[in-house]
């Protein structure tokens, strides 16, 4: 009877694992089956490096959207990673017990806020602030970067804090025994020992930033043209898909799916790069 139960549970676990793989496979098949023919018809260089997106004339160049996604994501990383990482270090090693629980609850609540609420916050607070204190009308790369920087904070904080807490206490105690200060032990011994987990948190944050749609659409200006400056409007690949998919047809629709293929490849490259980096670290840099 026990053998039958074990076999049954193995089948259940296998089915659950296969479901995840099947879901990824189906998404890949859908994207590539619909997107690759469009890229072939438009021309891969005209599609990826083309600077004009004008569906009414069958001109589909997504280079402005690629740059828009890169600029906005880079801005979010510059803002969100240092703040998130320092917050994680504080919560794991410096935070008094009295304020840890409310701080932890606040970061977890930040993770649960829907994108549309972030978008409203950006539209009502950040856009007027940028308009009154900087150049432009407020809907810009800078505004979208600030908003995304806030949105990726809970991901980076949560994963990085867990990674720091998993470092064996002997690392910290050994550094203290060698004469290092509390701060030096944490930043020069504990934090480097947790770097694979920290990098994983940063990658998850990048994935959140580059894939975010609704909040970015509300504050980025959504202009399908080459980015003209930090305080000018921009359109990302995700917002391009959402804004036009509702009425697109024929080659226009396939070009939008092809945009999703490019986005998918971007995220794939990021994940593979981090996996290779982590593997090299585990092998001692060889």
UniProtKB/TrEMBL annotation:
<feature type="transmembrane region" description="Helical">
    <location>
        <begin position="109"/>
        <end position="129"/>
    </location>
</feature>
<feature type="domain" description="ABC transmembrane type-1">
    <location>
        <begin position="66"/>
        <end position="274"/>
    </location>
</feature>
<keyword id="KW-1003">Cell membrane</keyword>
<dbReference type="GO" id="GO:0005886">
    <property type="term" value="C:plasma membrane"/>
</dbReference>
<protein>
    <recommendedName>
        <fullName>Phosphate transport system permease protein</fullName>
    </recommendedName>
</protein>
<keyword id="KW-0592">Phosphate transport</keyword>
<comment type="function">
    <text>Part of the binding-protein-dependent transport system for phosphate; probably responsible for the translocation of the substrate across the membrane.</text>
</comment>
<feature type="transmembrane region" description="Helical">
    <location>
        <begin position="141"/>
        <end position="164"/>
    </location>
</feature>
<feature type="transmembrane region" description="Helical">
    <location>
        <begin position="12"/>
        <end position="39"/>
    </location>
</feature>
<dbReference type="InterPro" id="IPR035906">
    <property type="entry name" value="MetI-like_sf"/>
</dbReference>
<dbReference type="GO" id="GO:0005315">
    <property type="term" value="F:phosphate transmembrane transporter activity"/>
</dbReference>
<dbReference type="GO" id="GO:0006817">
    <property type="term" value="P:phosphate ion transport"/>
</dbReference>
<keyword id="KW-0813">Transport</keyword>
<dbReference type="InterPro" id="IPR000515">
    <property type="entry name" value="MetI-like"/>
</dbReference>
<feature type="transmembrane region" description="Helical">
    <location>
        <begin position="59"/>
        <end position="88"/>
    </location>
</feature>
<dbReference type="Pfam" id="PF00528">
    <property type="entry name" value="BPD_transp_1"/>
</dbReference>
<keyword id="KW-0812">Transmembrane</keyword>
<keyword id="KW-1133">Transmembrane helix</keyword>
<comment type="similarity">
    <text>Belongs to the binding-protein-dependent transport system permease family. CysTW subfamily.</text>
</comment>
<dbReference type="InterPro" id="IPR011864">
    <property type="entry name" value="Phosphate_PstC"/>
</dbReference>
<keyword id="KW-0472">Membrane</keyword>
<feature type="transmembrane region" description="Helical">
    <location>
        <begin position="255"/>
        <end position="277"/>
    </location>
</feature>
<feature type="transmembrane region" description="Helical">
    <location>
        <begin position="185"/>
        <end position="210"/>
    </location>
</feature>
<dbReference type="InterPro" id="IPR051124">
    <property type="entry name" value="Phosphate_Transport_Permease"/>
</dbReference>
């Amino acid at each position: 009877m026990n053998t039958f139960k074990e076999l049954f549970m193995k089948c259940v676990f296998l089915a659950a694992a296969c479901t995840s793989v099947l879901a990824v496979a189906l998404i890949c098949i859908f994207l590539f089956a619909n997107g690759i023919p469009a890229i072939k018809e438009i021309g891969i260089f005209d599609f990826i490096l083309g600077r004009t997106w004008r569906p009414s004339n069958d001109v589909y160049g997504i280079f402005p959207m690629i740059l828009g996604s890169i600029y906005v994501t880079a801005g979010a990383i510059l803002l969100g990673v240092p703040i998130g990482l320092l917050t994680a270090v504080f919560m794991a090693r410096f935070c008094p017990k009295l304020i840890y629980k409310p701080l932890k609850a606040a970061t977890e609540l930040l993770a649960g806020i829907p994108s549309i609420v972030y978008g409203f916050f950006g539209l009502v607070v950040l856009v007027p602030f940028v308009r009154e204190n900087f150049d432009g009308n407020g809907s810009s790369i800078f505004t979208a970067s600030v908003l995304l920087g806030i949105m990726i904070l809970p991901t980076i904080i949560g994963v990085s804090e867990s990674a720091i807490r998993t470092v064996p206490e002997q690392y910290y105690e050994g550094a203290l025994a060698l004469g290092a200060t509390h701060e030096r032990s944490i930043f020069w011994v504990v934090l480097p020992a947790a770097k694979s987990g920290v990098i994983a948190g940063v990658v998850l944050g990048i994935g959140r930033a580059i894939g975010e749609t609704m909040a970015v659409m509300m504050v980025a200006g959504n202009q399908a043209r080459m980015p003209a400056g930090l305080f000018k409007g921009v359109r990302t690949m995700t917002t391009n898909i959402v804004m036009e998919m509702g009425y697109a047809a024929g080659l226009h629709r396939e070009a939008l799916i092809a945009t999703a293929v490019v986005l998918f490849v971007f995220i794939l490259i990021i994940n593979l790069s981090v996996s290779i980096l982590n593997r090299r670290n585990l092998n001692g840099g060889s």
